[in-house]
Design brief:
- With 204 residues, the protein is α+β, with helices and mostly antiparallel strands.
- The chain has two domains: 39 residues, no CATH class; 139 residues, Beta Barrel (OB fold (Dihydrolipoamide Acetyltransferase, E2P)).
- The protein is 22% helix and 29% strand.
- The strands form two sheets. Strands 8-1-2-10-9 form a five-stranded mixed sheet. Strands 3-6-7-5-4 form a five-stranded mixed sheet, with no helix packed on it.
- Strand 6 and strand 7 form a beta hairpin.
- It is elongated and about 85 Å long.
- The two termini are 29 Å apart.
- The relative contact order is 0.16.
Length: 204
């Protein structure tokens, strides 16, 4: 998965600018200003048109690319920069003595990959046992995988649209969540996941 696509600059819309200038020119035509009331309406219309906010470089810099997915029947999201790949696993070997959220290990092109089931940490309904979808997480190499129900879409979101969690939401696992969106999508904190010692196990 290409986690960091090249940033596309948005071209300036000259045609739209010309249309707006023409409308302003018509509004300033003395022949149209035949009454104080009409002038007031024109000025109000101009104010509404010019009040449309323009995207700034800061706004664009705050955009992040995310993958939305289902986990335990709930909707989650994670920055694609933390995701190395999405794959389907047919064989997961359980590891004795591991916590319940460790589903087991699997073979990833000759390397051992630990598989985590975050549903146990978030205390939500579990994901299917048979051939689950796995998000492989890591920076430059695979660290571990997390079980998901299904992947939905790759999209972009402004970080300003990720809101703080309520006091009771997600219980003790708030540190693994970045926040929640307006449509109730829980945004995982990828850096916190990769740094969480509970999600690191030694190879058997």
């Amino acid at each position: 998965m290409n986690a960091n696509p090249p940033r596309q600059e948005t071209p300036f819309d000259w045609e739209d600018a010309k249309r707006r200038l023409r409308k302003l020119g018509e509004a300033l035509d003395p022949k149209r200003l035949d009454s104080a009331e009409q002038q007031r309406r024109i000025l109000d219309q101009r104010a509404r048109e010019l009040a449309v906010p323009l995207a700034t470089e800061d706004d664009e810099a705050d955009l992040i690319e995310i993958l939305t997915f289902r986990m335990g029947g709930e909707r989650y999201a994670l920055e694609t920069s933390m995701i190395l790949e999405l794959m389907r696993v047919t064989t997961i070997t359980k590891v004795p003595g591991c916590p319940a959220f460790v589903r087991g290990i699997t073979n990833l092109r000759g390397d051992v990959l630990a598989i985590m089931d975050l549903c146990h940490l978030f205390q939500i309904e579990g994901t299917p046992e048979d051939e689950p979808w796995i998000l492989v997480l890591g920076d430059d190499r695979a660290e571990f995988g997390i079980v998901i129900d299904q992947a939905d879409e790759v999209t972009s979101i402004n970080t300003h649209d990720i809101f703080p969690l309520s006091v009771t939401l997600a219980g003790l696992q708030r540190d693994l969540l970045r926040g929640v969106t307006e449509d109730a999508t829980l945004v995982l904190n990828g850096a916190a996941l990769l740094a969480d010692e509970r999600l690191m196990i030694d190879e058997p």
